[in-house]
Amino acid sequence: MALVFLWISGFCVFAASAVMATPQSKEETTDAIVVLTGGKNRIQEGLALFAQGRALHLFISGVHEDVKKYEILALWDGDHALPPCCISLGYEATTTTQNAAETRKWIEKQDYSSIRLVTGDYHMARSLMEMHHALPGVAIYAHPVRQTDFTIKTLHYWELLFSEYHKCLYRWVQLLFTPKTKLSNLSELAK
């Protein structure tokens, strides 16, 4: 009974944190904005933050191999013009763990020590867990995005939360036994 109670309580806390999630330190400028593909409005939100000058660079992880940069840029219809450079696309990731690895690989080539992470509200907890593990020493600001194709009033949203909760538990246990490794460029910068 105690385990069932813990499991239910954990899901309630997890669901509440997703439903009530808001962007962290909204006005803070970071070195990069990292967008994880896979849901509506994520790329548009990343482009909007980039156009507002919230970071020096925009990195979109998990882009389908057939998608070109001009197609991403065509999604932008905001009032502010996008900066003329510094949008990078990652084509290697198909999972959240791979997003973190792809982002780490990209960050290691930069001199960046802070990112704003853009992903779905239901996906943020696991994404943060993966990113903190892959990017020790990097400041990570959560920027959850609400999906417009489903809301907390739809069954699909709750199915996603239920699935994400179990993926989080599973990855949390795995990461407990996976050592973190420092980023090479951060250790050089500290010297």
Number of helices: 7
**Main sheet overview:** 5 strands, parallel
Radius of gyration: 17 Å
Shape assignment: globular
Instruction: Output the CATH topology of the domain at 20-152.
Output: Rossmann fold
| Total count of strands | 5
Question: What ranges have pLDDT less than 50 throughout 5 or more consecutive residues?
Answer: 187-191
Looking across the biggest beta sheet, what order are the strands in?
3-2-1-4-5
Distance between the termini: 52 Å
SSE topology string? HEHEHEHEHEHH
CATH class term of the domain at 20-152: Alpha Beta
Strand-helix topology:
Elements: H1 2-19, E1 30-36, H2 42-51, E2 55-61, H3 69-74, E3 87-90, H4 96-108, E4 114-120, H5 124-134, E5 139-145, H6 155-176, H7 184-190
Parallel strand pairs: 1-2, 1-4, 2-3, 4-5
